[in-house]
Amino acid sequence: MPTATRRACVVTAFVLACIAASLPHARAFESANVKEREDEKTSTSNKVELRSFFDARDLSAHALEQSSHNALHRIDGTRVNAVDGRVLATSGFEIRVNASSVASGERVTVTVSSNGNAPNATFAEHWIGAYSPAGADVTRTAPVKYAMLTNVTNGEYERTGSGSAAFDLTTHRAETYDFVLFATRMSDLSETSAMAIARSDPVKLTNALDPVWPRVTLPIGWNGGSARVTWQSGRNASHGARLMYRVGGGSYTRVPASTTTYDERDLCGEPANGFGYRHPGYIHSADVSNVRPGDVIEYFLQDFHVTSDRFEMKMPPGEGPDARVTLALFADMGRGTSDDSETWRAYGRPSINVSAALAADALDEKFDAVFLFGDLSYATGFASIWDDWAAQIEPWASKVPFISNMGNHEMDYSSFPDGRIADLYGGRDSGGECGVPATRLYPTPRAGPDSDWFAVTFGAVRVVSMNTEVDFSPSSPQGKWLERELSSVDRTQTPWVILGGHRPGIIDSTDGPDDRDVVPGKRNPSDLSVMDELQRDVWPLLVKYEVNAAFWGHNHAYQRSCAWRAIGEGLFNASNGCVAYSRLGSDGVAVYDKPGAPVSLLVGTGGAKHTRNGVGHAFTEKAFYEFGYVRLTAHNRTHLYGEYQEAGSGYGDVLDKFMIIQPVRVSTTGDEDEAVLSARLERALSEVKTWRGAATIMAVFVCATFGIGAFAMARQWKTESTRHRFSILTSTMDDGAL
Ligand SMILES: *[C@@H]1O[C@H](CO)[C@@H](O)[C@H](O)[C@H]1NC(C)=O
Ligand SMILES: *[C@@H]1O[C@H](CO)[C@@H](O)[C@H](O)[C@H]1NC(C)=O
Ligand SMILES: *[C@@H]1O[C@H](CO)[C@@H](O)[C@H](O)[C@H]1NC(C)=O
Ligand SMILES: *[C@@H]1O[C@H](CO)[C@@H](O)[C@H](O)[C@H]1NC(C)=O
Ligand SMILES: *[C@@H]1O[C@H](CO)[C@@H](O)[C@H](O)[C@H]1NC(C)=O
Ligand SMILES: *[C@@H]1O[C@H](CO)[C@@H](O)[C@H](O)[C@H]1NC(C)=O
Ligand SMILES: *[C@@H]1O[C@H](CO)[C@@H](O)[C@H](O)[C@H]1NC(C)=O
């Protein structure tokens, strides 16, 4: 009787949770900060006496640090000269675009002529800012991207006084773009400033407001029978946004979208709510439901005005101990481009190559889902970058479920408004975003807006996602959730468990506690300090609950470690932590045969510039400074295979292969019938078309629950063994996160 009652409660809670989740979401999200140690200390002009507007010497320490991740931070609006934000009309320079109207995403050529101004050395400092909408006050609004004329033309511009740069015009939901030519003012020797000296005619963007960039996300409480598509447009909820889809050659289903947005009032500081701000447009989400593992779903984004291109997604394998599944895993992506923007030359440029490799793999069905653990776009307060990033990832994020959690560059900030939960480190790495764009634009089944943790099952793998930017100590909400979650996975059903978080729990790094500034009252953000805390608070849980592997980012490198069990504190090394090393097989696969502790993988290689902090610790079995991602495949309940795909140089080689072997687990508490019943219940759940028919659903499931409970009693169940199916849902309720 107690078992049945408990189950009834849990299922009822589940249904209520789902109903609540379907209501419009409250304002939401999360917090976090550490500066990454970049080996680049910014490039400075090596010309004598000629200082660039972008010269590091004129940037504040904070802007300098930030600019190492996103070059837009180099543009200091307070050092831009223009009259009332308009262009100084004295110069005779001319800037022209080769088209007056283009479709969103198309390329234009922007040409500058000096018209009789004889070229001299100062021409080396001319740059073009791209603005959308046209006519922006360049002292108050950042360009969406910029190009250095001399760089783009290999010096020709400096010699001849004319030159061109190519720009791809991503939509930022404004129907115009224009281009402004800047020169560096040299009169003031103490500080350089930029003068706006010419402005182009506006270029019209023909479909700037249309729905774009679908990504497959997953609703809270996801159980395999549905998926959520999220996209953006420039049209609000009154324009009829909806998803049209069908499975196979069936008839189309049309689902109205729920629409949300945010604005500068939701953001925490500069530049996110000021110089880098632009309205994100409207974020639409709609669910496909009543689908099954492996289903291929054709879909279109619609509103009253247009129907998008055709997209196709594939549902991942359903839960099962031998359900083969492959996940793509990485962190620290950023964005790149193939146009002439300087914006991404120094940082994140390889992400376009990694993204292209992911797109090719998605097309070939080489993976079933993607998990990106923190540091997504590096927009860091410049909203246009989120748009560029959405466009970059669409080819793969629109095809399979895409889950993510937040890193310091999404979350960390020095001040959070009342009611929000601040990050642990208190720096300004999110550029004032404080988690708002990341969580609104990229929903996941996270427990709540300020509770960026969740777990989902793909095939034979339970993926547990934590947020390293907020409290993870055992008594914290996240710490308690983590223990509940890990303790409740039924390993006879879901034999593999992996954890993903942004800052590494094991790291070969010199970034130690002593050389880091610590914000008063906040945690030391150094690699070694955070590792220490994760070793103390989280790693013992991973060992206790036999988690197979942990994945991290933050350091932009690949490191695969021994199977590790923390002993002691601080100054970790192989002799106080490694319980097993892999053995290299003749096929080049490093095999961890029943290692008895989790293997750690750092995969901070999605495209952001490498962090060269490693010293070659013996606990690291393999390390690379290459861009790429891990494909992790559960072959069956005993064999989990991973390979590191190099992707920075086009589609490269597999650089590392590993296999984790674990023994077959025998159920100690349940029996086959219980598993079958659970599977049926889950199937039934997934076949319910919509969560909104609340009364019916509740009635059906309460009845089903009692029916199953009665049968179960007759079979004299012992206890608990299917607890895990509902654990994320019950914990969601416990945390009051809905
Ligand atoms: C403008 O230039 C781009 C190349 O930068 C080219 O792809 C495009 O076709 C040109 N547009 C027109 C209208 O000539
Ligand atoms: C270089 O050219 C610009 C633009 O014609 C002009 O304003 C500036 O005075 C010149 N500087 C020198 C040092 O000749
Ligand atoms: C222009 O290109 C050179 C060489 O690629 C690079 O060193 C320099 O940093 C670039 N200029 C700027 C302002 O980034
Ligand atoms: C939605 O957008 C239209 C213009 O397209 C505007 O007239 C209307 O007021 C907006 N509605 C809301 C609720 O913002
Ligand atoms: C490794 O750690 C142990 C325990 O903290 C310590 O005694 C030992 O000296 C360390 N070894 C090295 C090589 O650092
Ligand atoms: C599990 O997969 C491995 C690797 O593909 C294979 O060698 C092994 O035989 C499989 N085990 C079972 C029980 O199928
Ligand atoms: C990366 O992608 C860009 C843009 O498509 C391309 O121009 C470049 O050649 C690629 N780099 C490598 C090393 O393949």
UniProtKB/TrEMBL annotation:
SUPFAM superfamilies: Metallo-dependent phosphatases, Purple acid phosphatase, N-terminal domain. Residues 597-656 form the Purple acid phosphatase C-terminal domain. GO terms for molecular function: acid phosphatase activity; metal ion binding. Keywords: Glycoprotein, Hydrolase, Membrane, Signal, Transmembrane, Transmembrane helix. The keyword Transmembrane helix applies. It comes from the Eukaryota. PANTHER family: PURPLE ACID PHOSPHATASE (PTHR45778:SF3), PURPLE ACID PHOSPHATASE-RELATED (PTHR45778). Belongs to the metallophosphoesterase superfamily. Purple acid phosphatase family. This is Purple acid phosphatase. It comes from Ostreococcus tauri (Marine green alga).
